[in-house]
Specification:
It contains ten helices and 19 strands. By secondary structure, the chain is an alpha/beta fold.
Amino acid sequence: MTKRPSGDVVVVGAGMVGAACALYAARAGLDVIVVDRGPVAGGTTGAGEGNLLVSDKEPGPELQLALLSARLWGELARELDTAVEYEPKGGLVVASTPEALTALTALAAGQRAAGVAAVQVDATRLPDLEPYLARGPAGGVLYPQDAQVMPTLAAAHLVRTSGARLETGRTVTRVLRDTGGAVRGVRTDRGDILAPVVVNAAGTWGAEVAALAGVELPVLPRRGFVLVTEPLPRRVRHKVYAADYVADVASDSAALQTSPVVEGTAAGPVLIGASRERVGFDRSFSLPVVRALAAGATRLFPFLENVRAMRAYLGFRPYMPDHLPAVGPDPRVPGLFHACGHEGAGIGLATGTGHLIARILTGKRPELDLTPFRPDRFDHPDRLDRIAEEAAP
């Protein structure tokens, strides 16, 4: 009989969040197995831009998680050196009108009070930061803590550095539970993997994994496209985006939304986003969306009109109704943990998420209050309302 692999923790999902969960759990002394039906970073992570942002988050629980994650990413970058292409280039948010600048200034003040470095930039100083930026914006805010990694490289290095056992090409078909209802591992199409803890880090497919354990988690896919230009000399120094991008991130609308986001990369190509729409898992190419992205980018950086777009790709962000991920133990199923639903911020929030999960697994107190991230919060609307009130600035 073939021996079934066993360990302390099974992490379902080999994207960035799963990789970070594996890293910190293994470093805490746990025997970790990572299982995924595809390759490392084969889902949302591989379709991401690698953003590590604090600039796009309003004061509240997600921003606290982002600040913790930013610190941890800095530590990992020093440890892994250039392996993950970590770039602490900062973000520049640009307001096109005085009204937009007023709103951006108010947001930055709240973020500053929460611990974010946010530097007001007068319109006359914008060309010093971005010489190729279009003239005319009313001003902006510089966020020095914003950074970027190469997502597929980073996820692969986190998994490899963790020393966790990696089981790719294995589809989880069931979360195994004992007669008392507690987790005892997962069943896959290639046999069982036994462990007293299962971490659902399946990203956009987190609802499916939760259902395999008999619980509901309202994770929905939110499609986004990215345009990639030909390699260029470094002309875009920061991650640059329009102030209305923050509102798009926080929107509950299922309709198409686009706001210009432009950033250079260490390899040379410029990445152009961002679009959001809830269309299920529809992977069809949308020319109107790509045209809207190109138009927004050239409004920010006119030189891009003469630059070739080499390709476009799409991915699905794991959207949750209150825009907060599910992080921590699921009280409905002993031994089941969730680390998913981060929407477009999963790469940036991965380190903090993995670190917090590992602390709980080893009986240590997490640095952040995980109440707003409770996986079962949608079972109790009154609790959800209370959490929303407490999280409001």
